[in-house]
């Protein structure tokens, strides 16, 4: 079991449970997380008040590095003053999307995002095909795969996403998203 940073005791229990579920999803997805950079952790909430509460709490631990309007809602990126240890990596960015018109099965920690870069000269479609061939996720019936390309005003890099989650979300609602670029790379361009 990963030992989470002692600077954030308020997150410890919920992050431990989240980490266990992500590690289960990674095992079932044939994804060795130690082979890839975990870019950031993300929360999901169902109400504006919950989002405001989380934002207040996160701002006690770090600072806003981005507050873009993405897919019809504000999404905050908070850089933690002290990274948390998660799946044997140090993570210093937390994503907090404000709610849209969707209810999530559980509020709180929901997904991680990892980086698998484009190969030289690789198109978005070739990248998606390579990821699918590498992990054969589309052949694993217990998994749900969703490909998207979020549109963010002012961002110049295309950052497609492949999201992997369980079809049956009753026991494990978590998700692992794969991108070709880290969020810090996107922010600096």
TrEMBL record:
Pfam families (UniProt xref): YecM
GO cellular-component term (any): cytosol
PANTHER family: DIHYDROXYBIPHENYL DIOXYGENASE DOMAIN-CONTAINING PROTEIN, PTHR37519
Protein name (record): VOC family protein
Organism: Haemophilus haemolyticus
């Amino acid at each position: 079991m990963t030992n989470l940073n002692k600077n954030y005791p308020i997150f410890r229990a919920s992050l431990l449970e989240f980490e266990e579920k992500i590690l289960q999803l990674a095992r079932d997805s044939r994804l060795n997380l130690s082979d890839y950079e975990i870019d950031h952790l993300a929360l999901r909430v169902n109400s504006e008040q919950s989002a405001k509460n989380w934002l207040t709490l996160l701002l006690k631990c770090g600072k806003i590095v981005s507050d873009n309007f993405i897919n019809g809602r504000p999404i905050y990126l908070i850089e933690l003053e002290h990274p948390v240890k998660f799946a044997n990596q140090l993570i210093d960015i937390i994503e907090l999307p404000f709610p849209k018109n969707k209810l999530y099965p559980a509020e709180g920690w929901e997904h991680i995002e990892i980086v698998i870069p484009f190969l030289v000269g690789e198109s978005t479609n070739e990248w998606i095909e390579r990821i699918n061939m590498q992990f054969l996720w589309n052949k694993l019936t217990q998994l749900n795969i969703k490909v998207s390309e979020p549109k963010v005003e002012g961002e110049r890099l295309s950052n497609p996403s492949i999201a992997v989650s369980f079809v049956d979300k009753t026991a494990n609602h978590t998700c692992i998203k794969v991108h070709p670029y880290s969020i810090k790379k996107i922010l600096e361009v």
